[in-house]
Design goal:
alpha/beta; six-stranded mixed beta sheet; 10 strands; binds zinc ion
Length: 257
Amino acid sequence: MRQRTAQIDDCLQRQNSAYRPTHILFCKRRLLLLQAGSSVLRPSNLLKWSFWLFPRRCLWCGRSIPSEEILCTECLDLAPQPGSVRTLPSGLTVYSVFPYHSAGGVRLRWLKFAGQRGLAVDFGCAMGELLPAYILAEQPLFACVPSGADRLKERGYNQSAGLAKYAAMRTDCSFCPDLLKKVKKNKTQHEISAEERILNVQGVYARNPDIDIKSRHIVLVDDIVTTGATLEACAAVLAEGEVSQITALTALATGRK
Ligand SMILES: [Zn+2]
């Protein structure tokens, strides 16, 4: 156990030192490249080419890895196998890449709080690769949990939209960033109790009625699932559009609360 803790410390050390500056540089260039090309070329191929120029990074330590991998060989021994599935009380299935308390969790917080938008590429790809083939065969439409206007202004971006964009690119599916919007201010979910969270998201989300989602399979993307209250509130709103099925997809999953 002590050896494992030391290995995780070592991994975090690597994240915080040698790999961070180059990663920021690569991410900015890669994002520009992807933005420039995504409207003309097949998205999944574009991602592959971008990894040739700016290699994909291990989601735990940040080392360069082959574009088909999620973790480097060293972290594979240490990390939990990517991929967990949970069913929420409403019956909504949630696929997640890593547990919250992991080196992957640290990297996701960089994306969320430290302005490292480029990490959305690596996380988004890993999320897309997690979806089973039968879901992808239905050509699902990707949607994301929306941010409030204040949060968007503060961060400059919605990290869930970034994750959904690259998960959709990786799987050659469409992403609709405006399908859901936030129509009411609420408290930040992680600052309140599990019981309060359900009430806190009531009437907060609305669906764009101009977008026809009838009989579509929707993949609803968020960064983290904790109680699942936010995902369930969004799924309830989407269900009003007579969708065929909804599947949730997150980068991290906390233990059930
Ligand atoms: Zn690694």
